[in-house]
Amino acid sequence: MVFPSKQTEKKSLFLSNIDKVLNFEVKTVHFFEANNDFPPQIVTEKLKKALEDVLVVYDFLAGRLKNNSETNRLEIDCNAEGVGFVVASSDYTLDQIGDLAYPNQAFAQFVHKTKDFLKIGDIPLCVVQVTSFQCGGFAIGITAIHLSFDGVSFKIFLENLATLASNMPLDVTLCHNRQLLAARSPPRVSFPHPEMIKLDNISSVFKSSSEELDFKVFQLNSKHINNLKEKANGNNNTRVSSFNVISAHLWRCKMLSGTYDSNDLSTILYAVDIRNKLNPPLPKAYIGNAVLTAYATIKCEELRECEFSKLVEMVREGSRRMNDEYARSIIDWGELYNGFPNGEILVSSWWRLGFEKVEYPWGKPKYCCPVVYRSKDVILLFPPFRGSSEGGDDGVNIIVALPHKEMEKFQSLFYTF
């Protein structure tokens, strides 16, 4: 275990209704090429020291989850019990482990579970593993419980870790006040929320799949994305976002590759950062989950027949719907019901989060990727591999997991459309 380098205040940290829904592990691997000035042993020492220092500022991360018996709410007991730290080595060189952008399930060896990390029943909120390769390159694998961070605040955490590893002072004042996203009293649900489902009849997209899945990476470069934008735009001159056209494209391909009843409804879910959607806006350095699930719904038969531009507009409308009152309504819904986002497809975008742009003393990562999550209803968007022939830095990698026959159909539709 690694502990804060200075004494921290013992306290309980309130978790918002957004946080408490996200009580599952997120595992990422950050690959680095060999740097003669920073062999893996030096990196390990610097990273461990930086982790001890960062836990003074992120004191909650060294805490443990507990249920408050008075409020019956999940919260973090900031008790300085530490985060996990693992040092490992591989007999391979970085070049030998293959295409880093490909969702390789063997990458699970580069991260460590939080559950029962050093003693039975103890679950740290974070475990960091450094794995050195024979070439001098290394991987930093991080497992964190999602309720600790969303993607934006995890990027800030990585930047702060990198700053402390460089022996520089932090220049960001963090906002730990998760009461900013507390429900109103009394709760006021002012909109219907078909994108949410109560837990007693859950069939959530976050469930992992037991069936055999094929994994594929689909790549779109800027030319492909502009083609989709032209199709979406028709004769209008309205500005269409890359995310909206990609999401609509994936929605159509995913639904048409499976079996469905023409009268069934199809719902796409996608995360929206609400920091600037609230009134007043949240501080930029809000540490916690400030993302909510936007949605669009259409009958399967209509999805098959309708214009692509209509699907894109529906995705766009889902994001526009997410204003202050709508966001507060979802948070209040979470106060009244034990529920979860629910749909046939969740597009989770790590594309513009910028993990790969974080500058450590030993350089930027060669590539960052998630450890594959086994769900056929979750599609991940990721930055392209740096230096790849497929569009350089302006494209996107799309990670899809589907049963074999559905994958064949999805692949055909993906390129046909």
TrEMBL record:
Q: Can you name one GO molecular function term for this protein?
A: acyltransferase activity, transferring groups other than amino-acyl groups
Source organism, top-level taxon: Eukaryota
Report the Gene3D superfamilies cross-referenced here.
Chloramphenicol acetyltransferase-like domain
Q: Which InterPro entries match?
A: CAT-like_dom_sf, Plant_Fungal_Acyltransferase
| Protein family (similarity comment) | Belongs to the plant acyltransferase family.
- Kindly provide the name given to this protein in its UniProt entry: Omega-hydroxypalmitate O-feruloyl transferase
Q: Which organism is it from?
A: Pisum sativum (Garden pea)
Q: What is the lineage of its organism?
A: Eukaryota, Viridiplantae, Streptophyta, Embryophyta, Tracheophyta
